[in-house]
Specification:
355 residues, Oxidized Rhodanese, domain 1, Rossmann fold, 2 domains
Amino acid sequence: MSPLVTYTRQPWAENYSEIIDVRSPSEFIEDHIPGAINLPVLNDAERAEVGTIYKQVCPFTARKIGAALVSRNIYQHLSQHFAAKDKDYRPLIYCWRGGQRSGSMALVLTQIGWRVTVIDGGYKTYRAYVRQQLENLPEKFTYRMLCGLTGSGKTYILDKIGQRDAQVLDLESLANHRGSLLGGELQGNLSYQPSQKYFETLLLQKLQSFAPHQPVWIESESSKIGRVYLPQSLWNKMRQASCVEIQLPIAARVQFLLQEYTHLVAHPDILKQKLEKLKYRCGWEKLSQWYQFIDTGAWETLVQDLLDCYYDPIYKRSIKSYFNKAERVLHISDFSDSSIDALLDSLLPNYVSLK
């Protein structure tokens, strides 16, 4: 006798051989459970086709066509992905609402003899869990804010703090954005960031890895990083946190930024497009001057002028408005190993991880 399908509304409470998202590729890309793989029973074009027929022609016709497409796609997955699975294989399956798409895959797999669990309510159950967790979980931690003007190496220092086994929440890494006008990571000529939903999924996954009895180091950010927003609960805790400010000479900051943003130096046209967005704030005359610096390769002059005229004033106003005054100010002369080690020794004296 074939086993029955099991349903759960708490998939995170158990372990499974594999988590399978049977939604279309575009749905999967927008957001999915961490560790899930995508085995769609309808791809994006097929889903659109069935939906159109359902609304414009006849629901019964749509279900027949949909069933044929689903059967064909499940056959492909059976002959490829599932072919080598042993009898103890135990997958977790979900679709959008936990309905027909996940049910179709689950029915076939249980007929083979595998123990299959389906998320009751599908992805929507998981999404509700993420939202609820992000309302409450950030409140459980004590945060230490790392502040400093643009080019102070906050993200770099944050990474070094993490290498000493301290707890670090790198929001720019999760958002795939460096938190400024020039901060998008280049993918061809575009900046790629996760969707708001997937950013929240990644953020929750990271927060769940932390121990509440240890502080969490985090860089001073605005409530928006590129195109994604921080949960209000986390933003409120960040604004209440104690701050440590990093200071170093502007020449060192300029050199650091030139090393960090080589992708923009290599693509001057893209850099000009990004800087054009500052015309409303800095004026056409200043923008033309920056363009001239780019055309002549005067990179150090360009970076220092951007810091003096735009980034430093913006950052100072932001820090004053949103974050507590720095409890400590630490000075370093450069980003040499000796300077960074001395800084970390001051930030993390006798640090011992208790995880």
